[in-house]
Amino acid sequence: MRRRPAEALLIDFDGVLRHFDPSAYGDFEDRHGIAPARLLESGLEWARQLPAITGHWTRQQWLDAIAAHTGAPAAALTEWDAYPGYVDQTVLSFVREVRAAGRKVGLATNATDDLHDDLAALGLKDDFDAIVSSAELGVHKPTKEFFKAACLALETPPDQCLFLDDTDRNIRGARVAGLSALRWDGPDVLAYARAALAL
Hints:
Blueprint: E1 8-11, E2 18-19, H1 28-32, H2 36-44, H3 46-53, H4 59-70, H5 74-82, E3 86-87, H6 89-100, E4 104-109, H7 115-121, E5 130-133, H8 134-137, H9 144-153, E6 161-165, H10 168-176, E7 180-183, H11 189-196
Parallel strand pairs: 1-4, 1-6, 4-5, 6-7
Antiparallel strand pairs: 2-3
Helix pairs in contact: 2-4, 3-4, 4-5
C-alpha cells in the first residue's frame, strides 16, 4: 500500500544543512604541522566520537582527546574548532518552504553538547520546530530510541515523518524505525522530498 504524504520533516545537520570548506583553513597544516582532515579523522573515530555525541564528554573534552591522539598543539585545535562551516542556502530555503507549507521540521543530528551555540552562530536557531541532539538524548542515530525521540519531539508518528540524511546507515536505521527516508547526495533529492511531503 502506498504511503500517504509525510506530515513532518526530520533533517540532518552536518553533510546536509551545514558543510565545511577545506580551503577555509588556508595554510593551517604548514603553521601547525598537522592537516585539518587528520583532526577530523581522529575525532570521528568511534572511541572518541561516541562519548562526545552521547553527552558523556563535553566538546572540549572531545577536542582534548583529539589533541592527545594526534599530538596536535592546543592552538591548532582551537583554530580548527573555531571554523563554523557554512549553511547550504538551498537546503535552508527548503526547510523554510516546508514550514511555510504548515509542516513541522526537526533537526535530527548526532552532535556534541554545543549544538545550540553552533545554530545561533549560523543564524539557524529559529528555523526548526524541534532540535533533537544525540548529546542531549544520550542516544545516537541510527538507534530506534533516537528516532522515537525525534518523532515525539515533532508530535508526529514515525510513518508520517520524512527523514533526510547523508549517511546510508542512518537512512537504514530510520526505515527500520518506521520513517520514510531519503539519502542526501545533492539538491536533486529535494524534488523527491517535496513529492513525499506533497508540497
